[in-house]
Amino acid sequence: MIRLARPDEREALTELKRRASMTWEEDRAHIEAHPEDVDLPQDQIAEGHVSVFEQDGRALGFVVVLPRNDGVAQLDALYVEPDAQGRGIGRWLTQHALDVAREHGAVGVNLIANLNARGFYEKCGFHVLVEVPTPWGRGVRMAKSL
């Protein structure tokens, strides 16, 4: 089931994001030096931008879709519990993000992915626009038309 995140879940979702981020060895030093970088902003939850994939009462992943004024939504975050990865949850959350963006009138979705996630997003139909620097290292700006 995919549902909107509740305000009281912020801390648990932040910890989910931390666990998922720590799966990439090259990201660990940055997370340890800047733990605030994995905080999930409360306003994103309060404004209804965070959707949670829940199974048997457990949040297994979440996605953040932010509206923009240019008609292109921003897929701002997508994280899946490490022990639940490889089960299609990321694909379901990505499709949900595309559906949400479309429902809000977006004509496309952009994102910035770390290099480890590039292949996943390409399989979901996103294409690379340009390589970009991020606080975590190199990343790629990607886009998908709706």
Please estimate the helix content: 25-40%
Report the principal-axis shape.
globular
The CATH homologous superfamily name equals Gcn5-related N-acetyltransferase (GNAT)
Give the ordered list of helices and strands. EHHHEEEHEHEE
Report mean pLDDT, rounded to a whole number: 93
Describe the fold and architecture.
With 146 residues, the protein is α+β, with helices and mostly antiparallel strands. The protein has a single domain, classed as 3-Layer(aba) Sandwich (Aminopeptidase), CATH 3.40.630. It is 32% helix and 35% strand. It has five helices and seven strands; from the N terminus they run βαααβββαβαββ. A seven-stranded mixed β-sheet has the order 1-2-3-4-5-7-6. A hairpin with a 2-residue loop joins strand 6 and strand 7. The longest helix has 15 residues, at 89-103. The radius of gyration is 14 Å and the shape is globular.
Features of the shown structure:
146 residues, 5 helices, single chain, alpha+beta, globular
